Amino acid sequence: MTTLYIAWQDPQTRAWHTVGKLEKEKNAYCFSYTRGATTSPRFKSLGRMLDVTKQYHSRELFPLFANRILNRSRPEYPDYLRWLALSDGVEHEPMQLLARSGGKRATDELCVYPYPKKNAECKNQLYFLSHGLRYLDDASLARIETLKTGDRLTLRPENNAHDEFALLVETSHEPIRVGYCPRYLNADLRKISEIELIVERLNHDAPLQFRLLCKAVFKLPANVNIFQGGEYELLNVEPQLLAAHG
Predict the structure, then answer these.
(1) What span, in angstroms and rounded, lies between the C-alpha atoms of 208 and 134?
(2) Distance between the two ends of the chain, CA-based, in angstroms?
(3) Distant-in-sequence, close-in-space partners of 77: CB < 8 Å, separation ≥ 6
């Protein structure tokens, strides 16, 4: 089973909330709202999935999420795969593309992120694109352009009035800011004391939101869970079939 979470940004407070869970098992998709959908009076629903207490099923990926994946017919599709460190000429699952790209669109305030997967060493592995590059100074932007695949990075807590869990992404030796960890990951990643963070890919020709792809590798400390409880608790009461129109 592949699991993705849906994060929504409150347009007034700018806080991010995990509002849904998208899963694929065999040949079917399932979407459920989570408790984060009840934390803001400004959140209503996603697409045609109007009732937050229902669970939605479809044989096809719901259009709300399918529309966040670049169509294979687009001429820039090979570049898109390269920016995400995915092989061209290979059929990639839509859920994989969503997980790696974050599914961000300029027309709304939604992002998609995956539950970490285990690598060959049984460590958790999580990819994310460095955020906030448009707010960096010239020195930081210049430093980003010198990064190479495999370079080590670090996550450093920042005293931030807008995000109490803010994590800076910095170079490891002479610390220079090269972005931010996505806000919706911060609270959970702060629970982990040792995270190996490296440059997975630097894309000189990509828009800023695709410029720096990072890979975090870590083991969970004993008795520490991430992406559980609180906003991650499911709200669904009864299942409902949705014929892929959501």
Answers:
(1) 7
(2) 21
(3) 70, 71
- Alpha-carbon distance 217 to 221, whole Å? 13
Q: What is the pLDDT of residues 9-46, one digit of tens each?
A: 999 999 999 999 999 988 899 999 999 999 999 999 99
**Sequence-distant contacts of 138-141: CB under 8 A, at least 24 apart:** 139/176, 140/176, 140/177, 140/178
In the three-class reduction of DSSP (H, G, I as helix; E, B as strand; rest coil), residue 108 is classed as coil
* 56's tokens: 């939605």
Give the whole-angstrom CA distance, residue 165 versus residue 210. Answer: 23
Angle value at C-alpha 43, between 41 and 47, nearest 5 degrees = 155
Q: Which residues contact 102 (CB under 8 A, 6 or more apart)?
A: 111, 112, 113, 128, 129, 182
Q: What is the largest CA-CA distance in the chain?
A: 54
Q: How far apart are CA 60 and CA 242, in angstroms?
A: 10
Kind of pairing between the strands at 152-157 and 167-171: antiparallel
Segment holding 208, helix H or strand E: none
pTM (two decimals): 0.90
pLDDT 10s digits, 84-143: 999 987 889 999 999 999 998 877 889 999 999 988 898 999 999 999 999 999 999 999
Question: What is the gyration radius of the CA atoms in the chain, in angstroms?
Answer: 18
Name the nearest CA neighbour of 211 among 156, 119, 129: 129
